[in-house]
Amino acid sequence: MYTTAYHTDDLSKFTFLVTGGAGFVGCNIVEYLLKQGAKKVRVLDNLSQGYIENVEEFKSNPAFEFMEGDITSLDDCRNACDGIDYVTHQAALGSVPRSIKTPEKTNAANVDGFLNMLIAARDANVKRFVYASSSSVYGDSPALPKLEQNIGKPLSPYAVSKYVNEL
Q1: What CA–CA distances, in Å, run from 114 to 3, 96, 137, 144, 146?
Q2: Segment 2-28, tens digit of pLDDT
Q3: What does the alpha-carbon distance between residue 30 and residue 22 come to, in Å, rounded to a whole number?
Q4: C-beta separation of 131 from 89 below 8 A
Q5: How do residues 131-155 score in pLDDT, each as one tens digit?
Q6: Which residue among 32, 86, 158, 163 is the active-site one?
Q7: Rounded to an integer, what distance in angstroms lies between the CA atom of residue 45 and that of residue 58?
């Protein structure tokens, strides 16, 4: 249960899109936003990494909306961004081993899907777009603590895909 609010605005005035909202991180963001009284929380998820069970408890909340769709589809991204104020982009195809086995799928989801979301958010006049990256972008950098300016060589297609989006 979230007892601390991490914002100062009245969320009842704003609409949110959480891509990958049926995943572990995404569903916790959805829960927070709904408990803080968001006007609308829409989830876009293709359920390849997330689980519908993670958002079942929100279905009775009139502020919750689930859209089954894929960030690799620009049309799905545009539909999801329609009427949205803020996007928190959590959707990605994770797994370093998977990215080595099928780098084209990782690139399609993580790079092309990210670009689709940026285009859709821009065209919908979204106020802010928040992106979830990965510690894998630090690659072979031995420096501790990890600092954003100390990026090493990425060690997997997954790391490259996340770093491309940061750039």
Answers
A1: 32, 18, 16, 29, 24
A2: 556 677 889 999 999 999 999 999 999
A3: 9
A4: yes
A5: 989 888 888 888 889 888 888 888 9
A6: 158
A7: 15
**Domain locations in the chain as residue ranges:** 11-166
Contact yes or no for 120/107 (Cβ under 8 A): no
Rg (CA), the chain: 16
The single-letter code of the amino acid at 127 is K
Instruction: Determine the Cα–Cα distance for residues 133 and 97; give it in Å rounded to an integer.
Output: 18
- Tokens coding 15: 């609409």
Q: Is 155 left (phi over 0), alpha (psi -120 to 50) or beta?
A: alpha
Q: 11-166: what CATH class?
A: alpha beta
Tell me how far apart the alpha carbons of residues 18 and 27 are, in angstroms, rounded to a whole number: 8
Which ranges of the chain does DSSP label H, i.e. alpha helix? 24-35, 74-81, 96-101, 103-107, 113-123, 157-166
Residue 33 has φ and ψ, to the nearest 5°, of: -60, -45
Annotation says 158 is catalytic:
yes
